[in-house]
Amino acid sequence: MLAAVVLVLVTAFTPATLVVLLVGMLPTLVAAIASRTPGHHAVVTIGSINFIGVFPFVLRLWMSGNAVHDAAAVATDLINLVLMYGAAALGWVVYLAMPPLVVALWRVRSRSEVAALRARQKDLMEEWGEELGRPPPRREPTPAGV
Amino acid sequence: MADSVESGTVAPTATDAAAVADHMTDAASGQAPVLHQRFEIDARTPLPAFDNGTSRAYAVTDRLQAGRALFALVCSPVLPFRAHVLERLNGSLPSGLLPLVDHGLVSWAGERVPVLVYVRPEGGAVGAVYGRDGRSIAENDIIRRIATPIVRALRGLDSSSVSHRNIRLGNLYFLDEGRSELVLGDCVAGPPGMAQPIASEPVERAIASPAGRGEGGSADDVYALGVALVSLLLGYDPIADTDDDDIIMAKLERGSYSVLCERQRVPLAMLEPLRGMLCDEPLARWSLDELQAWISGGRTSLPRRTAGARPAAPFAFGRKEHFSFRTLARAFSKDVVRAGGVIRAGHLELWLRQRVRDEDLANRVADQVHVATKAARGNANAEQVLVSRVAMLLDPRAPICFQGLNVMPDGIGPLLAQRWLGDGDAQTPAALLQSDLPGFWLWAQGKDGTSLIAAHRQIPRLHFLIGKQTIGYGLERCLYETNPGIPCQSPLVRGSYVLTLERLLIALDRAAGTAGEADLPMDRHIAAFIASRSEGGTEALLAAIGDASRAKVVLGTLGLLAQGQRACGGLAVPRLSAWMARLLPPVIDEFHHRRTRREVEKRIKAVAPNGLLTELSDIVNDQDRRMSDMSGFMAASAAFEAASTRIRTLESDDPRQIARIQEAGRSAAATASILASAVAVCLILMSHLL
Predict the structure, then answer these.
(1) A142 vs B670: CB contact, 8 Å cut-off?
(2) Is B54 found in the same domain as B15?
(3) Residue B110: is it exposed, middle or buried by C-beta count within 10 angstroms (0-12/13-18/19+)?
(4) pLDDT at residue B19 tops 60
(5) Which of residues 493-552 of B touch A (CB under 8 A)?
(6) Residue B260 CB-density burial (10 A; 0-12 exposed, 13-18 middle, 19+ buried)
(7) Residue B640 and residue A132: Cβ atoms within 8 Å?
(8) Does position B9 have pLDDT exceeding 70, yes or no?
(9) Where a domain ends, among B378, B408, B443?
(10) Nearest CA in chain A to B671
(11) Measured distance CA(B113)–CA(B35) in Å, rounded
(12) What is the pLDDT of residues B520-574, one digit of tens each?
């Protein structure tokens, strides 16, 4: 396992692999440079999905001998580029769509909770009267012996 | 009297008792007023020989014993009678007094008034036979026929802490036709001493307004006996033709003994006892024991003479030169404006220092001038108070003089009642109490005042009560505290002559039929009446009645009436109970828990017909239930408020909240992307390797 990891790392930092990665992950690099959010969620989201688009070509390169001219052929093929950048675009879509989606889900859940709370308040008012919803009156203690 | 009336007629419920009272009234409205369905009072046959002051005497027919010689004294409706005397004597008078056959209330000229039925004395009044037209009684007979029975009767009264205060020739009777048995006449029908002539009263009480002469004590009875004996011994009244004011001034200047006995042919053997009885110093006057010793032939002693220091020069005031502090005090009281000027100018102080050489008294007068000067701003009565106080310093035993009123401290009650019931102007007595002149009078007595236990208890209390103007206090409370024999003056029960808590409940029970929906069975008079006739513990209830909240007012009213009901043994008052039940909704509404409200309403409906206000009070005042309701309401309020806060938060669309959720969405996108990437890489690897 360790040997496989060492092999992958050595292979990954070969010029051929770096060429494919640099060209294929170019949208992620741009996002990383442009991102100013503290969590770098955009970079992570775009990068992860971008990598899914790049990894098959890197793997094919490794399987074919990891030569620089093969790498150049992969990096200049238009279809390949469309696939790799399309994955990056999908990452953008995921990054942009997720927050509104979560807000919408939260609102649905809130409405349900508000309905339950109102029902509880109605029960309390039926039991204790409408003065529950009013500011508490100032009450003197009942006189002793009354 | 009231106790006796009630004890004779009150059945287990107020309705029954009211029926008895109604019967009495009906009988009265028919022909002759009838007391206890037995004694018919013949209003067409007045017996003026037996009148006592403002109480009028009428012939009486006993339905059960025809031919019995009786007469009825009908008390004045505008004066209090001495209910406490009958109470202390348990409704029957000791021997030596005119036998009291019965007493109670009857309807008289459209009003309910107290009536006392006495045995009619066959021998008539002593004053009608002796002590006039030269008809005297020899000194030996005086002791046997007059002094002995009177002293015996007075000792009987004194053993119950009661004074007679009506000893005069016109109120001493021979019970039998042979005129051998002497009895004292009525002493209950009116305020103490009010019917007495000026001459028969000790000088300080003679100065006081008739209704304000005060309860006094046996010393005052001894004095009156002495005056009566002088007339009987002489066969005439030695000061009959003297003006009242002159009698007072003469007594102040020369002393009562001198005024009545000097230059009169009083038997030598009677000089010592008369000197003892007519001594103007109440503490030095013969006591009943010394009188008894004289009657029994034992050793007696003359009262010690306390000659006051005679000033080197008189004090000129009001076209008269005064050598006596007492006459000067009297003159000051009669001319307040001039007296105020003289006192403020320092003439009196100077006279006291230089002529009388009484530095202590001069300093006290100077102190009062200083106090009056400081208090003068905004106090319309400052001048009157100054003169009254200085008069009290000069003559501590004299009555309090204030705006034309002269009143002994123990006579404030009857005087207040006379003013209130009579002309309706009680403002002067009220101002007198507010000025705390009675307190000053007590202070002015010095060490002689230590024996005035009742005054030490009552005077500060009255000052406190008059100073508090809320319901249950004020002048009404003073009126009832000082007059056990005054009926409750509330318009709700005025026609019923209510003297006791029991009668009050009965009267309110009857008034329930005509009460409006929102009317309360409570007003200032009823509150003060109950508070004064209760054992105590009414402060919180009175405070509740004076509250702005309707619920508290109703609660306090119910509590006070329930306390009254408890005090009179739980007399059932169904109509009053139903009345109170109708007023309770605001109190029930104070419970928050709806089910508890329904339970309380149900229990009130069940209990109200029983007529027990105490039970109603217990239901609405169940402290455990109230505490439980309150704690439950607090918890429910907290839960309600928490829910409201949460709802506000959820519905607010707070941009910060939305931003937090959006950030969470981005984080979720990043996490999901990493996971998706890892899964995709694994799948791609596996598809190439397998």
Answers:
(1) no
(2) yes
(3) exposed
(4) no
(5) 537, 540-541, 543-544, 547, 552
(6) buried
(7) yes
(8) no
(9) B443
(10) A45
(11) 11
(12) 999 999 999 999 999 888 999 999 999 999 999 999 999 999 999 998 888 999 9
- At B116, give phi and psi (nearest 5°): -120, 125
The answer on pLDDT for B123 being more than 70 is yes
> Are B115 and B128 found together in one domain?
no
| Closest C-alpha among B184, B160, B15 to residue B87 | B160
Report chain B's mean pLDDT, rounded to a whole number: 89
* Residues of chain A positioned with their CB less than 8 A from the CB of B662: 99-100, 102-103
The total number of structural domains that make up chain B: 5
Going by their DSSP bridges, the two strands B56-62 and B111-119 should be labelled as: unpaired
- DSSP assignment string, B360-411: HHHHHHHHHHHHHHHH-TT-TTHHHHHHHHHHHHH-TTSPEEETTEEE-GGG
| Residues from chain A contacting residue B655 (CB–CB below 8 Å) | none
- Cβ count near B593 (within 10 Å): 19
The region, left, alpha or beta by phi > 0 then psi within -120 to 50, assigned to residue B611 is left
B662: contact with A, CB 8 A cutoff = yes
Q: What is the pTM of this model?
A: 0.79
Give the pLDDT score at B378. 63
Regarding whether B323 and B288 lie in a shared domain, the answer is no
Cα B236 from Cα B215, distance rounded (Å):
28
Q: Which domain holds residue B562?
A: 494-621
C-alpha triplet B58, B165, B140: angle, nearest 5°: 95
- H-run or E-run covering B43: strand B39-46
The alpha carbon dihedral of B449, B452, B456, B461 has a sign of negative
